[in-house]
Automatic annotation (TrEMBL):
Name of the gene encoding the protein in the UniProt record: adk
Pathway: Purine metabolism; AMP biosynthesis via salvage pathway; AMP from ADP: step 1/1
GO annotation, cellular component aspect: cytoplasm
Descriptive protein name: Adenylate kinase
Annotated region described as NMP, given as residue ranges: 31-60
Domain commentary: Consists of three domains, a large central CORE domain and two small peripheral domains, NMPbind and LID, which undergo movements during catalysis. The LID domain closes over the site of phosphoryl transfer upon ATP binding. Assembling and dissambling the active center during each catalytic cycle provides an effective means to prevent ATP hydrolysis.
PANTHER family hit by this protein: NUCLEOTIDE KINASE
């Protein structure tokens, strides 16, 4: 089973598509954002540490995120592959994930890059904030998160492109259409459901 990443700006639909693609391919979808939010909700030590960071639209430090990912990928359900959503976000995290995969005797099979228009992303995130009451989704924080993404995460796509791993997909459209585009792009790389 494959080892995959899904990347794209906040609001591009990564979380929705990660669950759908992981299910289609029989691997766990691992979302750092979901793990952080669950810990905040449960008021764990981790949750208390990351709450202020996320509310400011910043990234959680690599050391903390790397530890979380290492622990999660060591669980039995990830032994046959995984789909990571929200990780890696920095060059240090890419290097750490390379080490984890080396230890596992595996490598990345593909990086799905969801592309979405900035105005559409802002609209989606504001709607989600209204629906879910997410304190990290004010317009100012959303725009800051997009700036942080462009500065910190977008350059990582070049690393994966150099490795020939990027499958670029238009993230705008009906959920089913986007899922079909992703699965078709993965199949073209030899990663099939």
């Amino acid at each position: 089973m494959p080892n995959l990443l899904i990347v794209g700006p906040p609001g591009a639909g990564k979380g929705t598509q990660a669950v759908r693609i992981a299910e289609a391919l029989g691997v766990p979808a691992v979302s750092t954002g979901d793990i952080f939010r669950q810990n905040i909700k449960e008021q764990t030590e981790l949750g208390q540490r990351v709450s202020a960071i996320l509310d400011a639209g910043e990234y959680v430090p690599d050391s903390l995120t790397n530890e979380l990912i290492d622990d999660r990928l060591a669980q039995d359900d990830a032994a046959g592959g995984y789909l990571l959503d929200g990780y890696p976000r920095t060059a240090g995290q890419v290097e750490f994930l390379d080490g984890v995969n080396l230890r596992r005797g595996e490598e990345l099979d593909a990086v799905v890059r969801l592309v979405a228009d900035t105005d559409e992303v802002v609209r989606r995130l504001l709607a989600r904030a209204a629906d879910q009451g997410r304190s990290d989704d004010t317009e100012a924080v959303i725009r800051h998160r997009l700036e942080v993404y462009e500065r910190e995460t977008a350059p990582l796509i070049a690393i994966f492109a150099e490795r020939g791993l990027v499958v670029e997909v238009d993230g705008i459209g009906a959920v089913d259409e986007v899922t079909e585009r992703i699965l078709a792009g993965l199949a073209a790389r030899g990663v099939a459901a």
